[in-house]
Design a protein that fits this description.
Radius of gyration of chain A: 21 Å
Largest sheet of chain A: 4 strands, parallel
Oligomer: heterodimer
Order of helices and strands of chain A: HHEHEHEHHHHHHHHEHH
Distance between the termini of chain A: 66 Å
Strand order of the largest sheet of chain A: 2-1-3-4
Helix content of chain B: over 70%
Structural class of chain A: mainly alpha
Number of strands of chain B: 0
Strand content of chain A: 5-15%
Number of helices of chain B: 21
Chain lengths: ~290, ~500
Amino acid sequence: MKALRHILNAAGFTTGLLLVLAGLARFGASRDPIYPAVKTRWDNLFRQRHEIEALAVGHSHCRGIDFDTLGIRGYHVWEGGGDAFETEYIVRHLIPRLPNLKVVFYPASYFTFYFDNAASDDQDRNSNRIKTYAYCPGWTWIRGDWRNFIKGKLINVIRPERDYLFELLYKNPPAAERVYLREHDGASTAPGLFEPRTLEELISLSETNRAAEHQRLILDMGKNHRHLAKDARKSVERTLKDLRKHDIQVVFFTPPVFLSLYRTLQSRPCRRTKGRHGSAGRKIRRRLL
Amino acid sequence: MLFNSLEFLVFFPLVTAAYFLCPHRFRWALLLAASYYFYMCWKAEYIVLIIVSTLIDYTAGLRMVSAPSGSRRRKAWLMLSLAGNLGLLFSFKYFNFFNDSARAIFEHFNLMYHVPAFKLLLPVGISFYTFQTLSYSIDVYRGRQQAERHLGIFALYVSFFPQLVAGPIERCSRLLPQFYEKHNFDYVRATSGLKLMLWGFFKKLVVADRLAVFVSTVYQRPCDFEGVSFIMATVFFAFQIYCDFSGYSDIAIGGAQVMGFNLMDNFNRPYFSKSISEFWGRWHISLSTWFRDYLYIPLGGNRVSKPRWHFNLFLVFLVSGLWHGANWTFVVWGALHGFYLIFAIWTAGLREKFCALTHLNRLPRLHKTINVAVTFALVCFAWIFFRAGRLYDAFYMVRHLFSGIPNWFGNLIALDTDAVLRPLLVGQTLEDFLLAAGAIGFMEIIHLLQRHGSMRQMLGTWPLPLRWAACWIMIAAIIILGRFNITEFIYFQF
């Protein structure tokens, strides 16, 4: 009898707690999203999912792809600093949802095989994963990355970047939070793309030397993920297999405006990429395409 | 693995469930495996240190009981245990500190010094488990404790995961017998433990981590700030370290309680202390009592001549400072507390006379309030040395502690809110500041209510819906107001 009472108590408390969490989630969802640009990008994608024929996936080196010039109805789903694992995840979950998808543009850059955002100590990199899980419809997670999966799926309950209590007190969120809304201001009409992309801007972007930062990230991520290069290559292979299974063409490319990054990056990872994965590209082509 | 990580939120329920489902005779093995896994999540290789420490003390304990009391052999085994444990502690924690200090002295006199530095990571919690195992060896040597014959249980005593990395430093006489007891699941005890854990999470995630932003900004670059910011940052740090460490202790004690273990209390509203000696009876109690039992009393305690007594006190606090960290800032912090205590003894008569003269002794409440305020101010002053990255920064802050204060008061009188708030809002918004202050206020109100018994007991007398609502509000407060960019507990580094 006592045990039954305890079970009922625990059940009652848990139910109430779930209701509180649901209330918080609902309230959180009613406020400005944490990553408004990403959310809008995904919402727009699903709004026109029947028309989309091409996708640009991966990381920021996709910035130069202009679907209008190519004459395809395409959409940008890449995220700045996106890694091979996220790309695989996104592609896997988008294939069944985009019935007319024919081509996927996949940037092969010097860090493609050396980035794992979940293995980074940098919180910004981790948030890439959170963004992916938060808005990409899927209930699985990238192997070993359940922490970010939980954070992503609970994005409306546990909102890491803001004290949304204050939104009850203020009409506008406090100044420090406005930075997250900034992406709205630069919204472009290009599908999925929220950043300006004139040729001049692209060139200036490529001249911004981020190679040193990437170098540091490659080292850090490599420390935390022992077989990163091998796993990343396998992930790319899996992505290609998935796409091939659905008769979707893949275009690997390296945008020329980013070549300056190669020049500024320390030569070792470049050589390794070329030596190990340059041939991997060939291997992949031989095996799959 | 950190208590404030998602891993722990999965790990703890799984281990607890497995613990109660497991037959009693295998529970020690389960807990030992869980404890080693818990530690190895941080750095797997360093589990070797715990194992070495365990084996040294296990063997020493058995050998000591087999040797006659007071014999040389018994003493030799104690020495081996002390040398082994303190040797590990010295190598990993203090070698570089003494080496760097020696190098600085040699360089000062233009002498060559070629001893290289160790490039080793400080093992998390090494000071805690070393002291815990030392207490076992000393107790066995003194004949106060039977040697533990079950290696697994002894290994579990050294590495029991709730208190492995930041205490409470448990005595073998309290903890070892509990591993033999059969703990059945007790709903009331489990919910009480969970409530304590919840309170610990609130302290850590809502108060400590929120205060950390302001404190870190000021202490990282003290040259950029003035007196008001220093005072505010130091007061905030006093609460940050309290909430951080006592939050950890609450989670540890609560977690152990869920599984049926009773760990000793580590904090008892320390900022309500009326004197420094009382403060040390309420702050990090497990360490204070450790130093009392294994260093202060063996040195003679207060049953020696007055100068020797004062020396004993000073030495204990100096060692306590060094225990906290291999840096001169901690040594000065410990020395300051030692000095406070000795000064309090010297001036006891004078203070009594002053109270009688000013009739303060007729106003006990006012007297108590003044004592609490003075003690808090002294403790805060010492925290400057504890928190500062280097002695230079600490002395800079001390020198400039009151710089800019007249101007600030001028601005306050002139109601220039921007100028008044500027030094208070370093690295944070007004809302953050108000929240931090509010959280401290809330916590201290709870502490005030706890004068007449624990809050959990009080909560137990409330009707069920109110109790539940209190817990839901607490969880919602943690979710809404907590800082989830995971930060380590401050005491992990010790």
